Amino acid sequence: MGKEIHDICVVGGGPAGLSAAVNAWVRRKKVLILGGPSGQSKVKRSPKVDNYLGFPGISGDELYEKFLRHVESFKIPVLPDKVQNIYPMDRLFSLQVKDTLYECRSVILTTGVAAQKILQGEENYVGRGVSYCATCDGPLYQGKTVTVIDYTGEGAEEVRFLAEFCTRINYVSMTTAAPEFKKNNVEIITGDQPVEITGDGMVTALKTRSRTLDTDGIFIFRETYPPAELVHGLEIEGGAVRVNRRMETSIPGLYAAGDCAGKPYQVAKSVGEGQSAALNAVSYLDSLEHSTP
């Protein structure tokens, strides 16, 4: 039996992603949501939403639960695992989630925006010591020192993986409670804000507010990955994914919607863009079926 290929993979489980999935499902496409449901979705944290049509005064949490129940009623598969890389291929996309690859014919990015700012120097060292996937790049640092900056708590699992073959790990925890580790090659650092990544061609150090950590590599775990790091070659404009009115990105078959596609950061805008992205992705898929391979 061949590997299952979905028509559309939605990356992100906020309002834009859930809207995209529902609209693609209604058009009879095989849909998979990766990276949801989003416990960190901004709408869930809103005590009151007054500007979503038809639901005046509803809490953000209640509104999001209605979105999620809608998706669940259609039995659309939703996986909580975060996508780490997206690889455009010939008429297909391959999405890496830890050690698993998912394949689909079209992708809709709805990753939102990270609450944490990009660190000074971070963008300069992506691929030169800065990474967002320990499973992917960790083995490159066997016998070396690495630093893990964890804003979400998910970095703890990756530290345990890295501790098996790295000489030393600086675990910079930005969460409320730092975990314990059995390995004695892990130093836990709390309450010390990362400030700047420095190097000389390759990463050599992380500067925090109080100290400088010598390191050969840095792994960063945030609520969302920068879209340009998920998909190499993706065009960014003003810090957002560049899209046209059809929510098409610079890569054929790849769409973006919601906060990652730019302001305003409003739930109604995200839901509408998710629908638009899905319907245009469906048109794209239909055009593939009528074209010569």
Topology diagram in text:
Layout: E1 5-11, H1 15-26, E2 31-34, H2 60-73, E3 78-79, E4 85-88, E5 93-97, E6 100-109, E7 130-131, H3 134-137, E8 145-150, H4 155-162, E9 168-173, E10 186-190, E11 194-199, E12 203-208, E13 212-214, E14 217-221, H5 227-230, E15 236-237, E16 240-241, E17 254-256, H6 267-289
Parallel strand pairs: 1-2, 1-6, 2-3, 6-17, 7-14, 8-9, 8-14, 9-10
Antiparallel strand pairs: 4-5, 5-6, 11-12, 12-13, 15-16
Helix pairs in contact: 1-2, 1-6
Task: Report the CATH topology name of the largest domain.
Answer: FAD/NAD(P)-binding domain
Helix content range:
10-25%
CATH class of the largest domain: Alpha Beta
Average predicted local confidence, pLDDT: 92
Any guess at the CATH architecture of the largest domain? 3-Layer(bba) Sandwich
How many strand elements?
17
Biggest sheet overview? 7 strands, mixed
Number of domains: 2
Describe what this molecule looks like in 3D:
- It is built from 6 helices and 17 strands.
- With 293 residues, the chain is an alpha/beta fold.
- The protein folds into 2 domains: 5-115 and 225-289, 3-Layer(bba) Sandwich (FAD/NAD(P)-binding domain); 123-221, FAD/NAD(P)-binding domain.
- The strands form 4 sheets. Strands 1, 2, 3, 4, 5, 6 and 17 form a 7-stranded mixed β-sheet that branches. It has a 5-stranded parallel β-sheet with strand order 7-14-8-9-10, with helices on one face. Strands 11-12-13 form a 3-stranded antiparallel β-sheet, with no helix packed on it.
- The mean pLDDT is 92.
